[in-house]
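Example 9 (inverse folding). The structure is encoded as follows.
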């Protein structure tokens, strides 16, 4: 793909990649061998070239069939500033409100840059090591290059490729073997208006040693209205018997675009439990790929897609059972209102030799308005013997009898609709067993539901 035929978005990202390469070439520490910086530069250049060659995904590609990037391709974004943006008076109060309910320990990133003044990392337990990705790039560029080079081979992986070429910050979290951390750690990614539409590329990595346990909550929030692009890649590695509980709350600005990819590999008897609340943004796409690589590995992944207004939410699961006696349980609930659109793909592969695997997927969806749309596609591929597998997907409307019951007792239509909708969407939250964290997640969900305008439901399809 030549620069002459590139879209405005690709042209802007390409120019940023060139500028970053020049900057990195001039700031490698003298204490490091030149080969370390050269490895990073070569990886960045390869990723940039692959992204330019493949171009942006289109609806002609199966993995992107329901999500058009035409409007995004026509936009230009500026690079992130060299430091975390300082909010103006109008945004300062919104930023304070966004952080007010979040306890320590927390790491805050504002417009793609670490914000130490807003972070609170005191008292981290022994055995937990937290680094900024920007520090890894500076102090261990060869290590950073090896991480960035993963998961960029597909022809429709333009955004992971641009992430590899442009990522400058994020967090790297390592938990030593046997260390169990009871207090949740909070990662907060904030978008604020700072005079331009900007593109941010964050790279995160989590590694838990054998028998380690950690609870992590990721908050993707807006402090004021903006139209930024956030491109994130998260890599997770769980050692034997490790357990990671992760909750992600996405409540970004209505003008924001979020493209996120999570790639996780689970060792023997490892347990990955996660919950995603997709509540904001103009366009939000999340690819969650999990490899159950060790015998007895377990994945529990639940989520909520709240597509109201003109919001477009796209979630794509790719779960691979590669070892014996592995298990996955997936419970997702979607809601379409206004002219919103929710897209869900639940792909499960049970590979040859993965005998004794147990896979379950439930995706139920509600349509509250005729202008809303929900596309759901459960896919189950089995190449092993002696397995248990089930999947189901439904799209319907609110139960008319339940709605009538509430209205007959004096509740207005909007309030009755919101009450039934909230009950429908709460089910995935039962996955989290940390009381304080559940309260935080429920507050986020209820706040979004209160801000939504529901036109009313119809007859149930059940």
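The amino acid assigned to each position is listed next.
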């Amino acid at each position: 793909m030549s620069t002459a035929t590139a879209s405005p978005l690709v042209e802007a990202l390409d120019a940023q990649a060139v500028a970053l390469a020049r900057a990195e070439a001039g700031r490698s520490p003298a204490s490091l061998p030149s080969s370390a910086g050269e490895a990073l530069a070569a990886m960045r250049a390869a990723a940039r070239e692959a992204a330019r060659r493949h171009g942006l995904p289109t609806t002609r590609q199966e993995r992107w069939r329901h999500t058009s990037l035409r409007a995004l391709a026509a936009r230009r974004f500026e690079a992130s500033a060299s430091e975390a943006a300082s909010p103006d008076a109008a945004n300062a109060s919104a930023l304070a409100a966004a952080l007010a309910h979040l306890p320590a320990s927390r790491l805050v990133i504002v417009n793609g840059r670490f914000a130490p003044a807003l972070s609170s990392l005191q008292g981290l337990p022994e055995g937990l090591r937290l680094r900024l990705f920007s520090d890894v790039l500076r102090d261990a560029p060869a290590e950073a290059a090896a991480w960035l080079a993963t998961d960029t081979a597909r022809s429709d992986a333009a955004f992971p490729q641009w992430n590899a070429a442009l990522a400058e910050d994020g967090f790297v979290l390592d938990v030593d073997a046997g260390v169990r951390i009871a207090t949740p750690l909070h990662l907060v990614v904030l978008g604020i208006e700072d005079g331009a539409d900007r593109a941010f590329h964050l790279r995160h990595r989590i590694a838990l040693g054998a028998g380690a346990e950690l609870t992590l909550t990721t908050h993707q929030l807006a402090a004021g209205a903006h139209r930024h692009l956030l491109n994130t890649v998260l890599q997770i590695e769980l050692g034997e018997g490790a357990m990671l509980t992760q909750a992600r709350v996405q409540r970004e600005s209505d003008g924001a675009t979020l493209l996120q990819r999570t790639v996780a590999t689970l060792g023997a008897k490892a347990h990955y439990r996660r919950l995603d609340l997709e509540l904001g943004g103009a366009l939000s796409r999340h690819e969650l790929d999990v490899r159950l690589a060790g015998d007895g590995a377990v994945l529990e992944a639940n989520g909520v897609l709240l597509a109201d207004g003109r919001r477009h939410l796209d979630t794509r699961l790719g779960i691979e059972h590669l070892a014996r006696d592995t298990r996955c349980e997936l419970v997702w609930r979607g809601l379409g209102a206004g002219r919103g659109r929710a897209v869900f793909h639940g792909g499960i592969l049970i590979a040859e030799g993965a005998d004794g695997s147990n896979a379950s997927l439930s995706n139920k969806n509600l349509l509250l308005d005729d202008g809303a749309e929900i596309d759901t596609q459960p896919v189950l591929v089995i190449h092993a013997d002696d397995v248990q597998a089930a999947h189901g997907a439904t799209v319907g409307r609110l139960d008319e009898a339940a709605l009538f019951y509430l209205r007959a007792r004096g509740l207005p239509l909007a309030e009755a609709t919101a009450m039934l909708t909230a009950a429908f969407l709460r089910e995935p939250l039962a996955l989290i067993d940390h009381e304080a964290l559940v309260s935080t997640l429920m507050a986020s969900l209820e706040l979004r539901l209160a801000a939504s305008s529901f036109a009313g439901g119809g007859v149930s399809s059940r």
